[in-house]
Design a protein that fits this description.
Elements (H helix, E strand, L loop, with lengths): L2 H4 L79 E7 L7 E4 L5 E3 L1 E5 L2 E7 L7 E7 L8 E7 L6 E4 L3 H4 L3 H18 L31 E4 L2 E2 L6 E4 L5 E3 L4 E9 L3 E9 L2 E8 L1 E2 L6 E2 L4 E4 L10 E8 L2 E3 L9
Parallel strand pairs: 8-9
Antiparallel strand pairs: 1-5, 2-3, 2-6, 4-5, 6-7, 9-10, 11-19, 12-18, 13-14, 13-17, 14-15, 15-19, 16-18, 19-20
The structure holds zinc ion.
């Protein structure tokens, strides 16, 4: 195998969801790390809590099999009540789909995806990677429009891997022009990420089991914290899949294309709307073969893997978003 294809590409810069990209940032302005993260520089830590025991499956009959081997998940996404995971909150029966909200990063009310039917509804709440472990809640509007009811859940702590890298300052500093471009693109992406459509494209909400957009080795780098020259960045918020340039990328669910572009960090990018705030993004594309407004079926071709943007080599970065929150795509797909 040629050396180039053995190389496992990764997203070098993780500033898509990072507010600051310069090294000369006062410590008081750095992105906050959770209180339980050791603030020790130049120390490699590789802590990954076993998430399996935290899986809470709401599948009927799942509890009946008290065997050593857990039953295969039958609901998608799987629930995982940790930062970067998904809470499945049962809402009970109702004639119409209940309206559920969660609080966003700026205390704004963000609509939440609700699946089910009149027999029983379930809210699927994306839990931010920056969430503080402990009690949390979403709110469901009361039928008569009176006070909203709280839907409590508890976020368990999870230690994601941490990686300390020392690189040339020039590598992590942006020129004023690049900084301005990045900020424009960040503002544009924020508008894309706020997309919430009631009607899914092609009835995507019938099943939220996704198709992996490209075959290939999946990294487990979701949530990875990177510290460049002692400065913490926001964590990696997607799944990197190793694949050579040119590999076709397929839509993971029925979708409507809501954005395409060539972005500074993410390179060639396509954003897909699967309905009710469930979005996916694919990045670093070498070819984009769709345009905004196109409606795609599951498995439909949309572009090709590449190494555009700030990356260390060709790969697909796949992000999955619920209620404007990047969650672990692995919860939407069967294990590799
Ligand atoms: Zn990535």
């Amino acid at each position: 195998m040629p050396q180039m294809t053995r190389h496992n590409g990764a997203c070098f810069f993780l500033a898509r969801d990072s507010l600051r990209v310069r090294t000369a940032v006062p410590s008081s302005m750095r992105p906050l790390l959770p209180a339980d993260t050791p603030s020790i520089i130049n120390r490699r830590t590789a802590l990954l809590a076993g998430g399996g025991s935290l899986l809470a499956l709401h599948a009927p009959g799942a509890h009946a099999k008290a065997q050593a081997t857990p039953a295969a998940p039958t609901v998608w996404p799987q629930a995982l009540l940790v930062p970067g995971g998904v809470a499945r909150l049962p809402l009970g029966p109702a004639a119409a789909r209940p309206v559920v909200h969660t609080q966003g990063a700026k205390n704004e009310q963000v609509p939440v995806l609700v699946v089910g039917d009149a027999q029983g509804w379930t809210a699927l709440v994306g839990i931010p990677l920056a969430a503080v472990p402990g009690p949390a809640h979403a709110t469901v509007a009361a039928a008569g429009g009176s006070a909203a009811r709280q839907l409590p859940y508890t976020v368990a702590p999870k230690k994601y891997k941490e990686q300390h890298l020392t690189v040339s300052p020039r590598t992590v500093d942006l020129s004023p022009e690049d900084q301005a471009r990045y900020e424009r693109e960040r503002d544009h992406q924020a508008l894309v990420m706020a997309t919430f459509t009631e009607q899914p494209a092609g009835q995507a909400l019938d099943s939220l089991r996704m198709r992996v957009p490209v075959p290939g080795r999946r990294s487990s780098s979701f949530g990875l914290r990177r510290v460049f020259n002692g400065q913490a960045r926001n964590p990696h918020s997607g799944m990197d899949i190793a694949a050579p340039t040119g590999t076709p990328i397929l839509s993971p669910l029925p979708a409507r294309v809501i954005d395409t572009g060539e972005y500074f960090f993410n390179g060639g990018t396509v954003w897909l709307d699967h309905g009710q705030g469930l979005l996916s993004m694919v990045c670093h594309l070498s070819a984009i073969d769709v345009k905004v407004g196109d409606v795609l079926a599951t498995g439909q071709h949309l572009g090709a893997v590449g190494a555009t943007g700030r990356v260390t080599g060709p790969h697909l970065h796949w992000g999955v978003m619920l209620n404007r929150t990047m969650v672990d795509p692995a919860l939407f797909v069967p294990a590799a």
